[in-house]
Structure prediction request, 68 residues.
Amino acid sequence: MSKTLSISDEAYDRLINWKKSDDESLSSVILRAIPKIRTPEELDELLSRIGSLSDEDADIMTKAVEEE
Prediction:
C-alpha cells in the first residue's frame, strides 16, 4: 500500500541527499531515519541505548546543522 503526500522542495532535496544509493527508495530513507517510537517509555529506552555523545561528535553534529 502506498500514500501520496506533498512535501516542500527543501524536504525532498534533504531526503534525496540521505539516500545511500540510487536504488534506495525515499520510503526506505524515511523508515531508516525516523525511529518507530510510540510512547515516552520507548523514547527513554532508545535514548538510554544511544548513550552520550563525545565532545567531538557533538561538534561535528553542530557544524553539520549550522551548514544547513
Notes: The chain has one domain: 9-67. Helices lie at 9-18, 26-33, 40-50, 55-67.
